[in-house]
User: What shape does this take?
Amino acid sequence: MLRNLLALRQIGQRTISTASRRHFKNKVPEKQKLFQEDDEIPLYLKGGVADALLYRATMILTVGGKAFGMFEAYAIYELAVASFPKKQE
Assistant: This one.
């Protein structure tokens, strides 16, 4: 019984522990050099292919959303015009 309690205590200590078992290499100095270089590349594209894809997807969604918004505004205008009948003379 006592051994089970001690084992449970050990398991609890292991899972709650905040100590990292993996040691990661500090990449901050490398990234600082990359982003501070004056190589005519815009800052939002210096991250490589992933940044380029995210940028293009954002631009496509932004332009597409704006275009859809213009069609939506036109549809609301047409709905408003259709809701008021023309006077017959």
The mean pLDDT is 83. The chain has three helices and no strands. The CA atoms of residues 7 and 78 lie 73 Å apart.
